Amino acid sequence: MFDLVLNYSDKLLAGAAMTLQLTLVSVSLAALMALPLALVRHQPHTLMRYPIRLYVSFFRGTPLIAQLFLVYYGSGQFRHELSDLGLWWLFRDPLYCALLTFTLNSAAYQVEILRGALNAVPKGEVEAGRAVGMKAHLLYRRIILPHAYRIAFPALGNEVILMIKGGAIASVITILDLMGQTKRVFAQTFDVSVYLWAAVIYLVMTSIFVWLWRKAELRLSRHLYRI
């Protein structure tokens, strides 16, 4: 059992590195998408919130693996059109397809997390900002967004953890992330304990992330604990 992890540790660690790369890139890109979409979704009197609501409902209401298959295998049905648009290089690469799918999926969840956080900002703080003459952009920058992100911070951390684990499906389109490398080692050794070691590595990655995220959360909210 221990011989296996020693002999194949380089492959498992390379897979773990790929898993972290997929997660960090997709979640970061999703965060850039989520903020403007959440701000539009938060507005009560704009028609643009309906397409965003449809997008969020689709990506939150369907399995991630189905979304990945639609992007990776479905895009092949439109190869000529994508080639004419100069986009086939993106959709023919499984890594880019996984990043695109994970980004769109994570963004949908982050939009809803931020929308809920924006709704939870105390109205009194917003009214106080308006009372001192703050314009809308300054109100969002100095009061609404900082408070909303403090509220959303724990839920955003959960979204990252879910993406670390859910990203294991990238292996089904030949990406050698941690699960992909685990399947490869199992095919060579037929030793089921490799899946146990993969689970341990996932547990270590998520535990370290939770610890770091908790430290960041405490630092972000340190003024709330001062006496």
Task: Briefly summarize what is shown.
The protein is mostly helical and 227 residues long.
Structural account:
By secondary structure, this protein is mainly α. The chain has helices at 2-7, 9-42, 49-61, 64-72, 79-84, 88-91, 94-120, 123-131, 136-166, 178-189, 193-220. Helix 3 crosses helix 7 (94-120). The longest helix is centred in the N-terminal third of the chain and has 34 residues, at 9-42. The N and C termini lie far apart (52 Å).
List keywords for this structure.
227 residues; mainly alpha
List the helices and strands and how they pair.
Blueprint: H1 2-7, H2 9-42, H3 49-61, H4 64-72, H5 79-84, H6 88-91, H7 94-120, H8 123-131, H9 136-166, H10 178-189, H11 193-220
Helix pairs in contact: 2-3, 2-7, 2-10, 3-7, 4-7, 7-9, 8-9, 9-11, 10-11
Q: Tell me the helix content.
A: over 70%
What is the H/E order? HHHHHHHHHHH
The assigned structural class equals mainly alpha
Count helical runs. Answer: 11
Which percent band covers the strand fraction?
Answer: under 5%
Radius of gyration: 21 Å
Q: Give the overall shape.
A: flat
| Major sheet summary line | none
Low-confidence stretches: none
